[in-house]
Amino acid sequence: MTALDLHDSLVIVDGHCDTVLDLIGASFANQNLPARDFFERGSYGHIDLPRMVEGNVSCQIFALYTDDSHVEVARERTWRLLEAMEAVFARDGGIVLAKTAGDILAARAAGKRAGMLSIEGGEAIGESLEELRAFYARGVRLMGLTWNRRNAIGRGAGTGTDADGSGGLTDFGRRVVAEMERIGMVVDASHLSDEALKDLLKTARRPVIASHSNCRALVPHRRNLDDRQLEGIAATGGLIGLTFPGIFIDSDPAKVTKERVFEHLRHLISVVGSEHIGLGSDFDGFSDKFGTAFCSPAELTWLTEALLSAGYGRETIAAIMGGNWMRVLGGICG
Fold first, then answer.
1. Which of 24, 57, 121, 325 might form a disulfide with 13, Cβ 3.0–4.6 angstroms?
2. Minimal CA–CA distance to 123: which of 132, 136, 113?
3. For the segment 305-328, what is each residue's pLDDT rounded down to a tens digit?
4. DSSP letters spanning 250-285
């Protein structure tokens, strides 16, 4: 079997992208660009349906992200993004909303792609568990507790360490985690401060994921995770999503290459084993400013080929490319 044949046989899941912003004309990389049609090959950006098909991506998890300028209206902003994705699903053009792992398999069997919805930043729910449940009722199945900011749930990775030690999860944040676990939502730890992640790992009773984070041992960026954090996430039964923003791959843009991404992958395997790794591209959430290794889902075949060339077996490759996501989603969302 060739690497391409193997790749085409896999259930591939990408755990994070910011493409919804492009669909409303608010591109993360350049907010002066017009809105683009998800069903047409874009002249800018990373993900659209044609490129999902080329990369054999079975499921893309779409983040509903609130930028700094919309924090005061985070709830309304998140609903607008959700409605933009609902409009995509309503067109019945080859991608459908998935709420469970079973929905992903059903879409694949029908020759379609699946999209799952995630909130990036708990500002969207304010201080209300009822808002959390409302988003769940409309199909959201994952939530990143914070972006880089502090919110009612806890502190994000972009704010400084608190001298008083209050940089972890709040009491409300612990209630949010418990409620997410109760109703069947995946808790995403990417963007948490180190203190908040430590608190989460003590609090969680179900698998925790870091949807888009690399290895701090290779690149000491605050958004990457150290080995102890990686082990802590794996111990919950969760996974870490290998991610592609240049700044998390290497501090030197000239060294941001696919081969360097593979070094992060090899390190992840050495620390947590292949059963706790997935993909979390962050496509449409970064620009070329810090270097670019992967430009679209169509390039994911490179990872399959690299793993195969390095001697990894089909089961290991299948797990990393999507099987581990399917296990976590199946166990939590059904």
1. 325
2. 132
3. 999 999 999 999 999 999 999 999
4. -SSGGG--HHHHHHHHHHHHHHH-GGGEEE---BTS
Task: Give yes or no for a contact between 260 and 249, defined as CB atoms under 8 angstroms apart.
Answer: yes
Residue type, 167: G
Helix (H, G, I), strand (E, B) or coil at 215: strand
Task: Report whether 244 contacts 294 (CB < 8 A).
Answer: yes
The answer to whether 56 and 12 have CB atoms below 8 angstroms apart is yes
**pTM for this prediction:** 0.97
Please check whether residue 243 is in contact with residue 214, taking contact to mean a CB–CB distance below 8 angstroms. Answer: yes
Domains plus CATH for the chain?
A: 3-333 (3.20.20.140)
Q: Can you name the residues that pair with 208 across neighbouring β-strands?
A: 187
Q: Is 44 helix (H, G, I), strand (E, B) or coil?
A: coil
Among 60, 41, 14, CA closest to 279: 14
For the four alpha carbons of 38, 78, 234 and 334, in that order, the dihedral sign comes to negative
Contact 51, 296 (CB under 8 A): yes
| pLDDT for the residue 160 | 65
DSSP string, 59-105: EEEEEEE--GGGGGGHHHHHHHHHHHHHHHHHTTSSEEE-SSHHHHH
As a whole number of Å, the CA-based R_g of the chain is 18
Q: How far apart are CA 207 and CA 205, in angstroms?
A: 7
pLDDT recorded at residue 243: 98
Angstrom distance (rounded) from CA 98 to CA 268: 28
Q: Are the beta carbons of 198 and 168 closer than 8 angstroms?
A: yes
What stretches in the chain show pLDDT beneath 50?
Answer: 164
